[in-house]
Structure formats: structure tokens, C-alpha cells
Give the backbone structure.
Amino acid sequence: MRLDIKVTKKQKRFIDARENEVLFGGAAGGGKSYGQIVDALLFALKYPGSKQLILRRTFSELDKSLIRTSLSMYPKEIYTFNSSTHTGRFKNGSCIDFGYCANENDVYQYQSAEYDCIRFDELTHFTEMQYVYLISRVRGANAFPKQIKSSTNPGGVGHSWVKSRFVDPSPSGESFIGEGEMSRVFLPSLLKDNDFLNKRDPNYRLRLEALPEREKKALLYGDWNIFEGQYFTEFSTSKHVCEPFEIPASWRKYRTIDYGLDRLAVLWIAVAPDGRVYVYREYCESALPISAAAKAISERTPIGEDIYATLAPPDLFSRTQESGKTKALIFQEFGVTFTKTSNDRECGWLAIKELLCDTGRGVRLQIFKNCTEIIKCLPALNIDRIRPTDCANEPHEITHAPDALRGFAIFHTRPNDSTASTKRSRWTRDMWEDYYTADEGGKKYLKQKYGEPQ
Ligand SMILES: Nc1ncnc2c1ncn2[C@@H]1O[C@H](COP(=O)(O)OP(=O)(O)OP(=O)(O)O)[C@@H](O)[C@H]1O
Ligand SMILES: [Mg+2]
């Protein structure tokens, strides 16, 4: 028997993936669900006697999509479907259960089940508890591979946990090891990857273009960086993340740092002759004393790589009480000399926004895809509750790499007044917090003391 099925390149990559947990995620219409159905068929045929479970959150979704597609694709000579138990059986002894899990407690219907492969379609419709429970049902005393293969669009109740489980830890397409020694990979799927749909229904894209911005980002671009309260809404993996390449020796290069004992963040940035800015290397590590931080910065800069300036925020230039020396001076004693940038947070964030925005001639900021911390943290920054023009300082661990980028952005876009601007007396966060929580009398007093809020 010959199967007449064609797959897209991305579907083939999904079918070939051997990691324990695979996520095929992205734009609507990229061919994810179809890819699941083809993959399930190939798995069933390759491993006679194997058991698979395909899940959607609700039965009606399952019925309308996956069951229908499988019935139209799977050859009738070898496959029968029992519509009361929702089980498909192959002549070779393999079977596929089509299941759903509308409520958290529905997972217990699979309590004593065993599967070689579980497939979640629209994974972000499931909660993390459902996923973690159900994947414990992947087991069996046979030699078949044991896998959990999921497909989804961004958005939905499970957006955050799915993003942090699959999308954030590693550049897309690159396998990594997650908790419990399970290998994982995230494979993005875009509408442009699905020629079958693009040819058959060229207007589909236009219909997605007409969606509101947030839905458009998720469904047309398959972008995972969407949430309420996001500061850098302009950030888009497809626009701002690029494949690494050899930076020409002639481009001006910077290092920019944020340093505290809690975390050191260093970004290496090159400026191309066309004005585009490339973050081409990063290093982030916790609990490094200055000597170790300086050593790490130097060691990660290859000999012969000409760094024009190493940028650091003004607080590293203030004297510490204990030694009377500035941190910048101690860094210098260990071989790393800084140029002071500005601590004007608002101007710094705006400078990043300028680099991110698309002026019609493309965006100016590009980040090499191996710089995973800045790629994860920049879009995760929240708008500050009290000063909406500022980024929130919580969760603190995501602020370091963006702070380093901010130092560069303000220096690069406003080199002349970057140090001067630090001299202006602006209200600090603490002053703002006091002001917002004070009563009228307190507000008046604070204004007298510090001048008009700015
Ligand atoms: N290899 C293929 N051969 C023929 N048709 C295909 C193929 N892959 C996808 N399609 C068709 O393209 C359309 C979109 O595919 P599919 O439903 O799998 O996308 P999806 O990524 O799951 O979309 P959504 O995000 O909306 O669930 C469907 O009509 C499907 O039948
Ligand atoms: Mg689908």
C-alpha cells in the first residue's frame, strides 16, 4: 500500500523530532494539527502494537478537527474508527485514542492508562497540571520511543507555562534538557511554511492581517511575546532575532554591563554601517565578585576583537563606604575600564523602543538567537504600576540584561547628553512611591522638598 501524503518542511521536522517533549507552535494555519495527524499515522505504522493518545481540550473541538482529518486521511483498508469509544485501530495492532480533558479532574479518566506517545493539540488550552499529570501516562515495557508531541498557537490559559517550558529556555529548533532529564525542543511554525493553504486560500492571510494587534501577533506571526502590561509590545521574535554570523572586524563594537552581586549581565553589541545594531554575544551570571566578573568579561572577548567602549551605569562610579574606591575603579584594576552611561531610565527605555520599532525600512535592533537571556527578558518586562512610563523592577531577575541594553541604547542614540542627563535632578522611584501613597499634605511637603515631580 502506498500513502499519497505530502508534508511541508516544518511538518517533516516535527515528524522527525526525537526529543521526549516536542512543541510545534506558532501561527494559525501553519499546518500543526495536520502534522500531528500525519505523524500519528506514521508512528502507528512504524511501531505495530503501539498506543497513542491525541488530546484536545473539548470533545467538539476534537471531533471537528482531528477526528475528521484522520478519517479523511487514514486508509480505510487498514484503519477503523469506533465513534462511541473514540478509538482508532490499525490492522497491525496499533491504536489511537482521541481524548479530551475539559476540566482539571478529567485527567483522572486516564489514571490507569499507558501510552507510547501522547499528543496535545492546542496545548495552551490545557493547564500545566493537566499536562504534567497526563505525561506521566507515557510509559510501557516495550522498545517503542516514548514521546509527548504537542502543537499550539500562542495565547490561551496555558500561554505562560507553555512559553517558559518550551520557548524561553533555548533558541527555537535547538534541543535542550528540561527537568527530569527530559529532552525538549520548540519548533516554530509560520503561515508562510504552509504552501498547501497559501495556494488554496490566499486570502486567509489577509483575514489574519485584519485582526486586532494582539491577536494578529499571535495568530499571524506566531509570536509568543503577548501579554497585558508588557512594556516592549513592539518586540517580536520574528523581527528582532536573527541567525548568528561573523561580525566584520571593521564594525564598531561595544560591551555594555549591568553589575550587582546578585547578577552580572554583559552584552556585546556591534553597529553595522547601515545603522543596524546587533547584540551578538551575552554573558549573564549570578554572585560574581568584581574580580571574577572582570575576568569573565575579558575571557569572553576574543583577543583581537576591538571593543570601542565598555559601558556601565553611573552607580558603579560612586564611592563605596568600605573601601572608598568606586566599583568602576576596582573593575579597572582587574583590566576592564568603563565608560559611564546615563541612568535616565525613561530616556533609556525610549531609546530601546526606537531601536525596536519598524520605521518602514526594517527594525534597527537585531539579537543573535543564542543570546537567550536578553531575548527572554526584554519582552517579559512589565509596565511599572506607579510610573507607567518606566519598566517595573519586578520580577527583579529579568531586569539585568535589559538594564545593560538600556545603557547602550541611551549612549548610542544620545551620546552627548548621556552623562549630562544624569546631573538633572529627577525623582527617584522611592520619591514617586512616597508621593503616591502620601495624603494631600504629604504631597505638598514632598513637592516643596524635591520640586515638581518629574
Ligand atoms: N501537508 C499538507 N497537505 C495538504 N494540506 C495541508 C497540509 N498541511 C496543512 N494542510 C492544510 O492547511 C490547513 C491548515 O492546516 P492545520 O489545520 O494543520 O494548521 P494549524 O497550524 O493546526 O492551524 P490552527 O492554528 O488554526 O489550528 C488545513 O486546511 C490543512 O488541511
Ligand atoms: Mg490546529
